[in-house]
Amino acid sequence: MLEVRGLECVRDDRLLFSDLNFSLSAGEVMQVEGPNGCGKTSLLRIVCGLRQPEEGEVLWQGESIRHNREDYYANMVYIGHLPCIKGDLTVLENVRALLDTRSLSIDATTTEAALAKVGLAGFEDVPGKALSSGQRRRILLAFVELAGAKLWILDEPLTALDVQGVALMESMILEHRAGGGSVVFTTHHGMQLDCEMRTVELSAYSHAGWQERD
Amino acid sequence: MLKAYYYLLMRDLRLAFRSRHELANPLIFFVLVVTLFPLAVSPTTEALRTMAPGVIWVSALLAVLLSLDRLFKQDFEDGSLDQLMLSPNPLVVLVLAKVTAHWFLTGLPLVLIAPLLGLFMALPAESIEVLIYSLLLGTPVLSLIGAIGVSLTVAVNRGGVLLSLIVLPLYIPVLIFGANAVDVAMDGLPVRGQLFFLAAVLALALSLAPLATAVALRITASR
User: What dotted CATH number matches A1-75+190-214?
Assistant: First the structure.
């Protein structure tokens, strides 16, 4: 489904990683590991096409994502560090706005059910600025749930979430996996996933790592 | 695709109407600058008429320039811009939606208030009409070209000066032909040439600026 070939990433003249290869098929969950500043966020941004790698390419269904952006983006959802939430829009309008950019018309009951699932029932008409940062992250979880994408790319999805929030994220990932979806994620909090999980240790591909081996 | 355009346009308009003080800023700036000139220079009809086209056009241009930051700044800071770029819809269409919203919120109010300011400046009726046409054709160009500049500078802290440096040279033809059209109309000469030129620039900007903006946004995001 997703394949990464010979990726190399340079940031501010520093080589973060090079010659990184992996592939992910349907129903696989993969965690990107590594210390701060090793390029986890950069890798995820490259995989979702926001950032251009120095070398290598990312392929979706065997085709470079540069050439089939439309198909890739219809099947991929990404959440990053930033909340994507507008303080002046209500919770419901925020989810709608996120879904609208993907041209998804989802009816009100489904949307409200997803909001209830992430623990925002009763908050539909509360403006974004009145929410806590954990609640803002929960809006993103509802968005991921509703986006109906096969591939989830989650950068630190547990940030600001409480214990129930973490459990919710875990169950969402398991459910998504059971439905044949794939997930690539990073986290510094322990995620207890009760399933087979692959890991990529990013520092093994770093420049420093190469020098140590020499 | 059209739906995505419409929804994004509506979202931006809704957001703007929820924080109205920001909405009024360019308009207040425009009115203030134009009304201060007679006080500072000379209130005689003769003097007002001579400077009116230039003063109104320069104020409109600066009002748009000051409001440009709003175009992508908030979306960039809260991460919504990333989501726009990850949309299955063409980024050009989404950019065009944002620029349209920007014009509705800055250019259009300026066009609507301009006749009143034309009266303040003692412009004759027929040149007020030309002023409206010239602003109607010119302000969308200002938003479209401005979008290219903002998309390049949105990631730069305090990129305001840089933005002006990038955008102002491109604004100058619009300023010259816009102000000149009003000037010429006062002398009772035909203004078609100037207005056609503005229309041509608008057509050019409409077809090329969203493409350039989309590319510039992708470059900004890849940092």
Answer: 3.40.50.300
